[in-house]
Amino acid sequence: MPQTPQAVPPPSPEELMDQLARVAAAYYRHFAAVAAGHGLTLMQGKTLSLLGRPRPMRALAELLACDASNVTGIVDRLTTQELVRREADPDDRRIKNIVLTEQGEETVGRIRAELMSGLTSLGQLTGDERTTLRTLLGQAFPETTAPPRPTA
Amino acid sequence: MPQTPQAVPPPSPEELMDQLARVAAAYYRHFAAVAAGHGLTLMQGKTLSLLGRPRPMRALAELLACDASNVTGIVDRLTTQELVRREADPDDRRIKNIVLTEQGEETVGRIRAELMSGLTSLGQLTGDERTTLRTLLGQAFPETTAPPRPTA
DNA sequence: TATTGTTATACTCTATAACTATA
DNA sequence: TATAGTTATAGAGTATAACAATA
Questions:
Q1: How much helix, strand and coil, in percent to the nearest 5, is found in chain A?
Q2: What residues form DSSP beta bridges with A8?
Q3: d(CA A116, CA B4)
Q4: For A62-87, what is each residue's pLDDT tens digit?
Q5: pLDDT for A103-137, tens place per residue?
């Protein structure tokens, strides 16, 4: 059941992959620019955005898709800026939970708001269009559907 | 004209942004893994994928969204691996055009194929779904619609 | 023994500034 | 003067391996 009499041919999966590549690049470019506006690198911004709840170093390494040894340095630099702090876990003394400071909460909030205000086109989609986009992205990237709910 | 009697509420723009963040992260995770399988870093893989045509260092810096001074090192390392070479521009002797070697062409081809085969879910979308996804992504990220046609 | 986090190391990516060779 | 590319530098991200503390 074609949608219109003389429809434009659908993009090949390859073309779609190329467009997804451009969208991913545009997203990170935007994210990095917003983070830089707060004196943060991309990884520092991503890390902050993952701290909606306290998380062990190990969990951050998993979510950031990098080795645990890197997280030490990233968290060190965020700690220096007073945006996060390490808290000892009461149940397992090997674990250090990373928590946002009050200033960290504020920064995350501003970053999220600036991210959204830079994506005005996204807000102009109708409800039905957003539903469709969510559904199709969920089909194309099934691993991203069950939300661990990060921002980067 | 709602699509079904008791439809799931549409995602908020914020939820959609979060999902786009996850999709972008998943894409780069995949890209980096494929590149690593060829002994390349993410930036080296991205650079190779931009060389469907010869490009000056300056153009690469633009497309990679980084300072021109970084491209020197990236191209140096790709040159060491015999994947690209610098060619003097006949019209402007300041310009060096970066060209894929034969081995570089092969590597790019394999990387693109492995990228696609890792995105099988993408190929399972119908033509209409691919058309819709292209349209909606184009609306959400207008700057990505006119394709400079990279892969990363 | 296994796991969490850190340290040490080496390499890559990054922006800035200063330099050269062309234009 | 302006532009293309490089070099030097310093900081940040990266994986690997080895280590201490804890489980």
A1: 60, 10, 35
A2: none
A3: 29
A4: 999 999 999 999 999 999 999 999 99
A5: 999 999 999 999 999 999 999 999 999 999 999 99
- Sequence letter at residue B15: E
**Joined tokens for residue B92:** 């402007």
Angle B92-B94-B96 (CA atoms, 0-180°, nearest 5)?
90
Q: Is the CB of A67 under 7 A from strand D?
A: yes
Beta bridge mates, B48: none
Backbone angles phi, psi at A85, to 5 degrees: -145, 155
Give the model's pLDDT for residue A146.
57
In degrees, to the nearest 5, what angle opens at C-alpha B134 toward C-alphas A115 and B2? 85
- Residues facing residue B84 across a β-bridge: B100
Does at least one atom of strand D sit less than 7 Å from the CB of A41?
yes
**Do B11 and A140 lie within an 8 Å CB cutoff?**
no
Cβ contact A23:B141 at 8 Å = yes
DSSP 8-state secondary structure symbol assigned to residue B40: -
Q: What is the CA radius of gyration of chain B?
A: 19
Closest CA–CA distance from residue B22 to any residue of chain A (Å): 6
Q: What distance lies between CA A91 and its chain's CA centroid?
A: 29
Closest of B88, B92, B97 to residue B51, by C-alpha: B97
Sequence-distant (6+) residues with CB within 8 A of A83 are: A48, A100, A101, A103, A104, A107
Chain centroid to Cα B73, Å, comes to: 20
Cβ neighbors of A9 (< 8 A, separation 6 or more) are: B127
**B3 contact residues in A (CB cutoff 8 A):** 128, 131
Evaluate whether A10 touches B130 at the Cβ level (below 8 Å).
yes
B43-100 tens-digit pLDDT: 999 999 999 999 999 999 999 999 999 999 999 999 999 999 999 999 999 999 999 9
pLDDT of residue A6: 67
